[in-house]
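Support reply, case 0932

Customer input (verbatim):
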Amino acid sequence: MKSGDAVTPSSMILGNERRTLLVRYLQSCDGKADLRDIVDFIAKEEGKVDRRHRKSVYVSLVQTHIPKMERAGMIRFDHHVVTLLKIPENVDVYMEMVEKHDISWSVFYAGISVIFGITGLWFNNIPLVVVSGIYLILSIIQHFRTYRVFSSGNSEE
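Our regenerated output:
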């Protein structure tokens, strides 16, 4: 992380895939889940369900991720039950889960903008070219804002 960059609650959650998966799982369970179920979910999402990997997930959650999120007031951990208390408002904007071989919405919109821009040039339709350019710029800005949020919280595994 660059000096001067503040670690926001959003970047703290989104900067680590396990914390993002933890929040996503808790949201799907109405905000409360047993730690064992969370570990199984994360291990499955990471594509490794053997005992050794589940133990690795468990240790990282208990020693790093849960305490960090508990200190930020986002979750409560009591008797192996994790309860979602609150998540920062802007986290939902970035919670888009993109599968390994998929593209994000910002990249999709950038591609569509390029197609419409070329079409506008082909048909000599200047308003279509201008609007396509605006959408292209907005999608690029969104893509880099999302990337910055994901990368800024990734300093602590």
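We compared this against your earlier run and they match. Two observations from our side: The CA atoms of residues 47 and 53 lie 10 Å apart. Residues 152-157 have pLDDT under 50 and may be disordered. Please reopen the case if you see a mismatch on your end.
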